[in-house]
Amino acid sequence: MKIIRAKDYSDMSCKAASILSAQVILKPDCVLGLATGSSPIGLYKELIRQYEAGLLDFSAVRTANLDEYRGLPQTNDQSYYYFMREHLFRHINICEENLNIPNGENPDAAAECARYDAKIRELGGVDLQLLGMGHNGHIGFNEPADAFTLGTNCVDLQPSTIEANKRFFASADDVPRQAYTMGIGTIMRAKRIVVIVSGEDKAEIVSKAFFGPITPRVPASVLQLHPNVTVVADEAALSKCGDLLK
Ligand code: F6R
Question: Which residues, 6 or more positions from 96, have their beta carbon under 8 angstroms from its beta carbon?
Fold first, then answer.
């Protein structure tokens, strides 16, 4: 696991964006696994800037997003599809048919999970998976549990995740209670993983996930076993790692 220290959120975003742009330049038809949330917004802005400057071409890029709320249509402004459209897709020359995200509108959870896994297999797997990390160490919506998940699954969101995500909704009551998420097995099969973490509120979980024991109680800790993980974290997020980084 390689840990890259960034000064702040903006530096983290630029450094991580450079890794994604290198991926697109090296393999123009790569499969990018993408994340939502506040962590990647600056990174997506930087990719848009590079695209607008004529430095990047997304026309052959395929994507597979990590997760989607169950029950929200793509047109709902809190759906992750809507988020990706607003923060990245509508600003770059990516093709609609190359975008993949779990379908929150499919009420048949088993069918939707099987469909999404088959889609990722058909794409040939993920070349580069971008991840943020929740305060409890969740990746995608894979919450702390007794075992690591394998394929796409339908999860009940934990109260702490509902609390963290309510800032995007009118109230906590409006946050959907379930989501479809790519499984940890699929994430671990990505050829390369880039984790971005910013802020002092993540400092505790950063030290646990990347320097503590590997346990499904801290889902991101499994990333320690992946052969090609780069963590791009700002100083605030690394502030509890101290000597561990030396
Ligand atoms: C989003 C996702 C989540 C977030 C995590 C961190 O697609 O899969 O795991 O990455 O909740 O969220 P932020 O970046 O808002 O702190």
Answer: none
